[in-house]
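User: Hey, quick favor. My workstation is busy. Could you predict this chain's structure for me?
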Amino acid sequence: MPRTPDIQTVETEDEFIHVRFRDPDEFDEIRTPDWAANAARDVSEGAEVRTGKRKDSDEWEVQSVLVKKSVGEDKAREQATKIVEKIES
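Assistant: No problem, here it is.
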């Protein structure tokens, strides 16, 4: 089973707490796919997942998770980690 990446930064922006797992500069392309949001909804209602495709690969990985600001920073960290574990396992 792949190791869940560590959280790099947590920032509050507008309606979301942005939990970053990987540097966006590591990716050629970043998307917010519907399928990932659907998977995230089971853990945190309204969460969004940004996935990235690395420059030297065809595989997509979670770059960051956006959790509704109302849950608070500690809970956002916890929920974002669960979402990444769910998607990348």
